[in-house]
Amino acid sequence: MKKFRKTGLVLVSVIVLLATILAGCSGGDKEKEKEPAAPTASNTKDGPKETDAAVAEVESDPDVWQLGSEDLEFTMYGHYDWYDVPAWDSKVAGRWVKENKKVNIVGISAGGNPEQKLSTMIAANDLPDVIWLDKGKDVERLREMGMLVPFDDYLDKYPNLKTWMGKDLNMLRAEDGKLYQFPNWYTGRPNGNSGYVINKKIYEELGSPTLETTVDLYNYLVAVKDKYGNDITPFEPHLAKDLQGLGVLYTAFGENTLYSYLNAGIRSVPKGDQLVSLYTDETFREAQKYISKLYRERLITQDAFNQTLDQIEERVMQGRVAVFASSSPMGAAAIAHKELKSQDPNAGYFMIWPIHKPGLDKDKVYPGTYTSLGWNVNVITTAAKDPEKIFAFLDWYTGPEGQSLLFFGPEGKNWKGFDEEGHPIFTAEYDADEVVQLQSDHDPIMWNGNTGFIDPAKIKYESKLPVEEQNWTARWQNEITWKTQANATEFTNMDPMPDTPLGEIKQRLDDIFDLAHVQSVMAKSDEEVDRVWDKAEKDSQDAGYSQLLEFRTEIWKKNKEMLSSN
Predict the structure, then answer these.
(1) Which of 61, 276, 434, 553 is most exposed, with the fewest beta carbons within 10 Å of its own?
(2) Is the dihedral angle over the CA atoms 295, 297, 299, 305 positive or is it negative?
(3) Does residue 493 have a pLDDT over 60?
(4) DSSP 282-302
(5) Mean pLDDT, rounded, for 532-542
(6) In the chain, pLDDT over 90 holds for what percent of residues?
(7) What are phi and psi of 39, to 5 degrees?
(8) What average pLDDT score do residues 472-482 get?
(9) Does residue 17 have a pLDDT over 70?
């Protein structure tokens, strides 16, 4: 899904709501006698393909452990305050894996305080076997303490991850050159859900005007306010404190201007071969003035920085939003579309091509980004009794059979076997409602999603259906969002460790930005917007901004060099 610890995902209920759209995802009666063929390393449009020769070579190696040949049980801990690993037996996929592959997973709860939980486990030397967490500081802390198992000896034995991710896997290697991280929602193809959702009924009642440029959008929001008053929110920016829809608006003001430039892990813009200050960038300033104008004219939700996800989703569900923009608006919009349409055939939501400033090339405006590294990662700790067997399971889970199980259920009903392109073959008994429910239920156990495999599989089925019968999310991903997300892999892994002088500088800079962002949005004039960001620039430079920019520039150059050699 940022994007995922997605910034909007703060509750397990929200994860369920967004089940069909995470980081590029939307989501046999008995297992086959032998594992599905391991994919080859050939790069095709839809990803690698499987071959019998490859699997035969792997299975003939006596050192390769065969999943399902004996019982395997391990513990898993999710390092998030909004997440607990669900009971394995509570999920269709979990029950199937337990019965057919002899794998049982025991969840460990963070208890609402993941930082304290992890620190306690480290201090007591009582780590779980697997930890699901963000890339970055905690992974590096565990590695430096010698608490993680490297995967290098396993990659050729269990080849799904290596094959599907390719050389970009090297971007996840640690300073010692070894690989300790198994990524989630990694991809070699564009994916993502960022963009603009439009209320169909309101749009048509206002005459279906052109909605292409920032001028069009402003005029439309004014028309919404004039006609509906306080009954309808003209522009819903999702969680403004996490940038969300306001970040989407920022991208409308520059070609190849990335949402990611605003993120705390970058917070700068490239100029030539350097990363420079975001705050003095003309595109950034112009966008902030536009956003502030919308806010002070009450065209944006006035409680944008205080509202909860429940409040946002309620308005969307009730059809009381004219334009909904976010880094991931599809979860709420898809469910609301179905509900509204059931009450009124003319109601619902649709998506539009990204808004752009007049004069810009609309095909060079990207409201969202993706990276080949995906969202978060799995690490195996030295507490694991059988790390190779755990890796073998994770590798199977991220492969065609595991992903098909998670998204379409056990082989036999909705799908059976794989076609010549490696996609699951859907049966005449395919139950679309059941599949949507499965994807929703399985979302909390999608720990190492393979976007490159599952996205083409979904679209291959949906594209054969009439438009009115297509899954709402899959349709707009295929028509709009996947075509309008930019690859930001070169801007990854750019944060200093938090317990270093640069890490302390970063924290001060984050605090400066957070305050300035709120003040800018609520500014009473364009001149005040400039004053806010002038002050933020001065305060940031005083706090060491130039040092952090220099640090990030060097990492950025190394990232680009590594990617160019792949």
Answers:
(1) 61
(2) positive
(3) yes
(4) HHHHHHHHHHHHHHHTT-B-T
(5) 98
(6) 75
(7) -70, 150
(8) 91
(9) no
Give me the count of residues in the chain. Answer: 566
Look at strands 424-426 and 195-199 and give their pairing: unpaired
Q: How far is CA 183 from CA 160, 283, 379, 451, 466, in A?
A: 12, 33, 9, 11, 35
Highest mean pLDDT among 27-41, 325-339, 403-417, 452-466: 403-417
Quick one: CA dihedral 345, 346, 349, 353, positive or negative? positive
In Å, how far from its chain's centre is CA 492? 14
Burial 189-201 (b: 16+ CB within 10 A, else e): bbbbbbbbbbbbb
**Alpha-carbon span 194 to 191, nearest angstrom:** 9
- pTM score over 0.85: no
Written as six digits, the tokens of 145 are 């303490």
Can you read off the two tokens belonging to residue 416? 């059976």
Average pLDDT over the chain, rounded to whole? 88
Which is nearest to 391 in space by CA: 202, 209, 114, 148?
Answer: 148
- Looking at residue 188, its pLDDT comes to 82
pLDDT at position 48 is 56
Distance CA 375, CA 373 (A): 7
Longest dimension (CA), the chain: 73
Question: Which distant-in-sequence residues (6+ apart) come within 8 Å of 555 by Cβ?
Answer: 493, 494
Closest CA relative to residue 291, chosen from 340, 256, 240, 332: 240
Is the per-residue pLDDT at 455 higher than 60?
Answer: yes
Identify the band that residue 564 occupies on the pLDDT scale cut at 50, 70 and 90: confident
Give the angle 79-81-87 at the CA atoms, nearest 5°.
70
Place of tokens 């006035």: 302
Secondary structure string (H, E, C) spanning 9-49: CCCHHHHHHCCCCHHHCCCCCCCCCCCCCCECCCCCCCCCC
